[in-house]
């Protein structure tokens, strides 16, 4: 007779076996005593596994589950840890409080919202609803007379979120993130104030209000703080390096009675400053809690010793960090490869050929990833993968040519090439301030009724049929279209895009899209790419290749099971792993970003980003360095090695140490 053994479930015999399931480092963390605890958990060291056992251990020692607070950055992670902990012991752990900061905040506010002037049955609005309300507030604020187009509602909600979560003033946030709107601080302040008033009048809270409300309850109502701080005997925080200023303050207040606070994170994976993450939360934890004990998880179960040697040597150049050395549990593997490529086109050709070789060697496509610092670094690769019929998925958003700001620019080129393209025209004309759907359709009806739509753009009859802002905007738009029309006769597509970038189109990008500098960099790369095409039809035809089935996109956080190579920004790849990883464009000014060259804090974050990229690889790691890029005037520019590569090359020379990679020579 065959015996079948079920896994332990709540109510069954305890499944805790520290000797079997934990290494020495993990065991020390799990069984640590009371007081503040800082756990520096390196990449691939089993952080989630350790946290799960910590919860189970506390409950097994008599701590009621409802007196434990577990804060994570996804509800899915919280549920998984709680479920696994329940399976390890005889107590149902699901009674503990666990979830994201926002979900726990909502649970607290449902009890105490009236103290802040909100009903208990307040409604939580999502991002789309928040933008709809913000649009109403823009109209109600009466600032539409401004000559300069205001930021879109989505940008205003992000701006408000930045100020609330980081503690930075509105004027400072504007200057840092949107300097081209700094002179509009007064009308923007009026709109945001009105937005806050309207939400409260309607009993609405957005996601930021949840955190702000939780923090206000803890600071303005001592009895609420004492109640919750006394209730939670133990507080555990996952991914602590990603917490922002407001979240860090909430954690400290919640731990103000018992002081049993365990924060787990990796300072070397703090890469989200642009989202408001406060690196100082984890770095200054020992200063805020002088009695805190520190633990390190350094045994890595993901990568080979060769990959970890590279990662360890690189991150040591950061001054502000908790020193650690990752040690591999896996056996030896191939040396990381550093490849000098002629240019981005040869880089793309190499990556595609190497991917096909890896597949022939037995690696599945879904176990291969290509990572990059900026989305435009993948432009040539996306085209080459399509030509080679290598299916790929873009994790960091849409494929390059399907991004909204790229399509905005291409709408001008499409209309110039084909004046009968109604979709292209409607997209470009709606980019102009004061021209909505109705006016756009009216203008199109007039132009499409003419023998030559392009020739009719400056027809006085059309201009006379418009009024107000629509008339002013169409006058400007028609002048730009006329200029592009005349330029097309004498220049290539790259110069048309350059003209576009020198025009009011740039204002549209800045007022419409967050991280406008990155969008403009994408558009400059598009112009650079277009320089190899002599005509619009050739360029647009090539771009249409990426509309096929070879490339697909998935939302951030979504999983995929089919056989696709994953293309991703490094920021979106954190927490993931693949057998083989390619890192693109490791050139000075590309990775690290050129903006970091004169700022130590930014350079250290860029080095942490490189560290995250290298530690995504389990077995094969390829570092790609294009030697030359061509500017829009066809001038070749030599690209130096990334400082992250050069500093290790110099170190090896001075200290007579082997390089942590193998240099590959390309034979064309």
Keywords, separated by commas or semicolons:
about 675 residues, alpha/beta, Rossmann fold, 4 domains
What report would you give on this structure?
Keywords: ATP-binding, Helicase, Hydrolase, Isomerase, Nucleotide-binding. ATP binds at residues 41-48. One of its GO terms (molecular function) is ATP hydrolysis activity. The protein is of the alpha/beta class and 668 residues long. It folds into four domains: 18-109 and 210-297, P-loop containing nucleotide triphosphate hydrolases (Rossmann fold); 123-202; 305-397 and 554-664, P-loop containing nucleotide triphosphate hydrolases (Rossmann fold, 3-Layer(aba) Sandwich), CATH 3.40.50; 402-545, Orthogonal Bundle (PCRA, domain 4), CATH 1.10.486. It contains 29 helices and 20 strands. An eight-stranded parallel beta sheet has the order 14-13-15-12-16-17-11-20. Strands 3-2-6-7-1-8 form a six-stranded parallel beta sheet. It has a two-stranded parallel sheet with strand order 4-5. Helix 6 (127-141) crosses helix 7 and helix 7 packs across helix 8 (170-177). The longest helix has 21 residues, at 468-488. The chain is globular, with a radius of gyration of 28 Å. The termini are far apart. The relative contact order is 0.11. The model is unreliable at 8-13 and 548-561 (pLDDT under 50).
Low-confidence stretches: 8-13, 548-561
* Shape label: globular
- Proportion of strand residues: 5-15%
Number of strands: 20
EC number: 5.6.2.4
Keywords: ATP-binding, Helicase, Hydrolase, Isomerase, Nucleotide-binding
GO biological process, one term: recombinational repair
Protein name: DNA 3'-5' helicase
């Amino acid at each position: 007779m065959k015996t079948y053994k079920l896994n332990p479930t709540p109510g069954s015999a305890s499944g805790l076996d520290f000797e079997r399931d934990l290494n020495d480092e993990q065991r020390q963390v799990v069984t640590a005593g009371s007081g503040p605890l800082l756990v520096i958990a390196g990449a691939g060291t089993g952080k989630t596994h350790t946290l799960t056992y910590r919860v189970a251990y506390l409950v097994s020692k008599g701590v009621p589950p409802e007196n434990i607070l577990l804060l994570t950055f996804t509800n899915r992670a919280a549920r998984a840890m709680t479920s696994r902990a329940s399976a390890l012991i005889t107590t149902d752990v699901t009674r503990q409080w666990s979830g994201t900061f926002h979900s726990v905040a909502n649970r607290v506010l449902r009890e105490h919202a009236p103290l802040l002037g909100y009903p208990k049955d307040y409604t939580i609005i999502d991002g789309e609803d928040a933008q709809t309300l913000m649009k109403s507030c823009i109209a109600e604020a009466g600032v539409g007379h401004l000559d300069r187009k205001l930021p879109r509602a989505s940008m205003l909600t992000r701006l408000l979120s930045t100020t609330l979560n980081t503690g930075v003033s509105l004027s400072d946030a504007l200057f840092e993130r949107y300097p081209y709107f700094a002179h509009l601080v007064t009308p923007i302040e009026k709109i945001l104030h009105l937005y806050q008033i309207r939400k409260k009048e309607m009993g609405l809270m957005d996601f930021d209000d949840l955190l702000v409300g939780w923090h206000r309850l803890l600071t303005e109502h001592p009895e609420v703080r004492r109640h919750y701080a006394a209730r939670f005997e133990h507080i555990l925080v996952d991914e602590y390096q990603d917490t922002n200023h407001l979240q860090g303050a909430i954690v400290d207040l919640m731990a103000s009675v018992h002081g049993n606070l365990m924060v787990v994170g990796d300072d070397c994976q703090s890469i989200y400053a642009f989202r408001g993450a406060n690196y100082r939360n984890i770095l200054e934890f020992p200063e805020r809690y002088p009695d805190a004990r520190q633990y390190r998880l350094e045994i890595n179960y993901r990568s080979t010793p060769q990959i970890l040697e590279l990662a360890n040597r690189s991150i040591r150049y950061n001054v502000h960090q908790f020193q650690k050395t990752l040690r591999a549990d896996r056996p030896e593997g191939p040396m990381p490869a550093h490849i000098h490529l002629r240019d981005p086109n040869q880089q793309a050709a190499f990556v595609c050929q190497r991917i096909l070789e890896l597949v022939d060697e037995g690696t599945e496509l879904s176990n291969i990833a290509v990572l990059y610092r900026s989305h435009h670094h993948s432009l040539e690769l996306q085209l080459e993968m399509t030509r080679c019929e290598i299916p790929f998925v873009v994790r960091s958003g849409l494929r390059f040519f399907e991004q909204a700001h790229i399509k905005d620019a291409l709408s001008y080129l499409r209309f110039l090439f084909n004046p009968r393209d109604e979709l292209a025209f409607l997209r470009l004309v709606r980019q102009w301030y004061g021209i909505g759907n109705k006016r756009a359709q009216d203008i199109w009806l007039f132009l499409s009724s003419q023998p030559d739509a392009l020739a009719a753009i400056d027809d006085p009859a059309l201009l006379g049929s418009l009024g107000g802002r629509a008339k002013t905007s169409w006058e400007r738009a028609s002048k730009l279209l006329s200029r592009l029309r005349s330029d097309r006769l004498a220049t290539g597509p790259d110069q048309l895009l350059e003209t576009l970038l020198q025009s009011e189109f740039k204002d549209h990008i800045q007022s419409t899209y967050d991280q406008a500098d990155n969008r403009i960099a994408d558009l400059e790369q598009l112009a650079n790419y277009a320089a190899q095409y002599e005509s619009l039809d050739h360029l647009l035809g090539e771009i249409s290749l990426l509309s096929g089935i070879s490339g697909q996109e998935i939302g951030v956080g979504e999983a995929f099971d089919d056989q696709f190579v994953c293309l991703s920004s490094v920021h979106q790849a954190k927490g993931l792993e693949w057998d083989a990883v390619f890192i693109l464009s490791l050139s000075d000014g590309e990775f690290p970003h050129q903006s970091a060259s004169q700022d130590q804090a930014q350079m250290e974050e860029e080095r942490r980003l490189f560290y995250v990229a290298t530690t995504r690889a389990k077995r094969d790691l390829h570092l790609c360095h294009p030697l030359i890029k061509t500017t829009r005037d066809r001038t070749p520019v030599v690209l130096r090695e990334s400082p992250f590569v050069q500093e290790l090359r110099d170190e090896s020379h001075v200290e007579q140490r082997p390089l942590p990679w193998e240099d590959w020579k390309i034979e064309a």
